[in-house]
Fold these 2 entries.
Entry 1:
Amino acid sequence: MKIILTHEVSGLGTAGDVVDVKDGYARNYLVPRGFAIRWTKGGEKDVEQIRRGRKIREIATIEQANEVKGRLEGVSVKLAVRAGDAGRLFGSVTPADVASAIKAAGGPDVDKRRVELGSPIKTLGAHQVSVRLHAEVVAKLGVEVVAA
């Protein structure tokens, strides 16, 4: 089945790409979650609009990515969450939480899909988080999770 990606999907492509995938993968995963739309002849207009939007949002060059990396690594991020007595969280910290904490700490605006958690953050303390800014540039960021 031919689909048009509306978001970046790891191992498949970026927004605006037209790819061919198995029917079940498209029907059961990509389309319901909003990562893709079905390809039609009229959908070619959508492809151009998606690509224009991606160009505006994405970091185009490695120099820009390194500049944002420097600003990111200089930011001290504290995330206040609810936790129990033993230091275990009620739930976990999501990439969206980290992205909003970076912005609140005065850092650059980061897309939540670019934030990569090694494993789910479910305890208080210091944790390492990666932010993939470009295909070749990854920023390492320390996140301090404290009780609210």
Entry 2:
Amino acid sequence: MPIAINLDALLRERGMTLTELSERVGLTLANLSILKTGKAKAVRFSTLETLCRVLECQPGDILGFSEEE
């Protein structure tokens, strides 16, 4: 898929675990894991907004695009 999810890098930069992010954004660990691994079919804008608030980043820091798979 040409859309890349960069949660691993953001979490590393912030010294945060996926479990901690899950607690802060109010999403289950399973749902965040699906998003992190790129298996999610969609992301709600409200979820993206919450992730950006908690991670103090822009949507483009979370999502990336590459024509090469």
